[in-house]
Amino acid sequence: MTREKPATHWWRSAVVYQVYLRSFADSSGTGTGDIRGLMDRLPHVVDLGADALWLSPWFRSPMHDGGYDVADYRDIDPTFGATSDALALIDRCHDLGLRVLIDLVANHTSTDHAWFRAAVGSPPGSRERQRYHFRPGRGEGGEDPPNNWISAFGGPAWTRIIEPDGTPGEWYLHLFSEHQPDLNWECPDVVTEFDDVIRHWFDLGVDGIRVDAASALAKDPDLPSVDLDLSRGFIPRDWPGTPFWDVERVHDLLRRWRAIADAYEGNRCLVGEVVVNTPDRFAAYLRPDELHSAFAFDLLHSPWDATEMRAAISRSLAVVEKDADNPATLTWVLSNHDEIRHVTRYAPTVARGGDCTVALDIGLSRARAALLLVLALPGATCLYQGEELGLPEVLDLPAELRRDPTFHRTAGAVLGRDGCRVPLPWSGDRPPFGFTAAEPWLPQPADWASLTAAAQRSEPTSTLALYRDALRVRRRLLGANDTALRWRESSPGTLVFDRPGALTCVVNVGAEPVVLEAEPVLLSHHQDDPMLLPPGCAAWLGWQRTDEDGGAPPSPAGPASTV
């Protein structure tokens, strides 16, 4: 099955399917997903209706942080295959009409990177050490870290090395794990190296780059301590400004990379992971000469509450609506490889007898409603592998099997991200559910048999069927529609908005059923009365012209009212 590639500025409205490669499909019997396994399963992505793939890091790595500790940015890790496999995948995706985005992990390297090994083996002040942030410690013997910065993975952001002569020496900065030393972007070597890395992958045919931890790259060269309450943990969206996050120098780098992308044919794009304190700071990353798009995390972090969800959407859209001539856009996301899967996140905790259980049936219904919500919003959408199967977070992984450095650096106080990275269930009635012929690198729940892709493929009411239908209808109605969202007044507990010329989206976030007062119902995910929307459900309605469009206005109460 071959489709035409999306048109110019394809990234403005694309549906991107995120592949966490280790957990997608294993072709080699190692228990870990690989490139050939992904190629074997590409029909699943095409049938779903995605426009692009975003791949987690596939570079050579010791895998202390799942590939986000890169030892060589130009080589494929043997766990995943070879460079020839990567090139074959890019070509096959293009044949199928899929764009390909890869991760650029530019804040840090692995401690196994040749640069870091050279730095540890060189004296203080050397060129090799200037590529990272090496500093002497505080205290009489340098036994204390250079400042009070903390790691996003728990504990201090500094680790002390042993110098070549065997004595305790300088400290190096790592905002993430001790296996991920931060690069010094004031060093010309670093700047020119990553220019070349970006060109290398664009030359090999990738269509876009997702900039990992974009707001972390630049640091105040003085590395001063901060006057913040760091006891609450690493929460940059709550910090008004620090010398190690959202530092102005980062915009010079993004402008440099944008110029590189713009020099290539084929509408190459840069998508940023941007977590900052205010909408104005977020908007700076989307200036016309910086990122093409950035993930809109406000909605992901909102609870299942109509008022808060509407505020998050409006706040995010305001960022890209300020400049009508700027083609930058948002990429909406509900789950990813770093977040609790939204089936579980939206599920309430229910007391049954003396126990509390997570009501996953409610969470799944809400997750299906949230899909229709985000697909109707202006901009692009990123779907995380397995959400089309309705997978929940795996909360009961044994401690001895967990791999996330967050879990280990916090002595288990923070479970970390393993629960959303459990390998996908493809077929069969027991683990490994067609993922591998071996033992999966993380265990799958035994009760996932009904959630496999094979079990859902021919079931018209399955979550997989809803995703396929929703992407098909979205492509037909919104593929070339660039109109802004227009909110409608509606009953408490509901979200109702128009995409003029295309559809009206109604989401019931409340506790009571909602009567739909307009027809036709284009798509919904419940099977009862099509004009009665239960709690935790959503529907797309045929767009109704209003006075603003020169047509008949809706009823004063809007197109939805509670029973």
Q: Brief description of this entry?
A:
The protein is an alpha/beta fold. Helices cover 25% and strands 17% of the residues.
Task: Characterise the protein shown here.
With 563 residues, the protein is of the alpha/beta class. It has helices at residues 35-40, 42-48, 83-95, 114-120, 127-130, 188-203, 250-262, 279-284, 297-300, 306-321, 342-345, 360-376, 405-409, 453-457, 463-478; strands at 15-19, 52-55, 59-60, 72-76, 99-104, 134-135, 158-162, 168-173, 208-211, 269-272, 293-296, 329-333, 349-352, 355-358, 380-384, 486-487, 494-499, 503-508, 514-516, 521-524, 532-533, 537-542, 560-562. It has 3 domains: 10-108 and 187-466, Glycosidases (TIM Barrel, Alpha-Beta Barrel), CATH 3.20.20; 114-173, Alpha-Beta Complex (Oligo-1,6-glucosidase, domain 2); 483-562, Immunoglobulin-like, CATH 2.60.40.1180. It is built from 15 helices and 23 strands. The chain has an 8-stranded parallel β-barrel. Strand 10, helix 8 and strand 11 (293-296) form a beta-alpha-beta unit. The radius of gyration is 24 Å and the shape is globular.
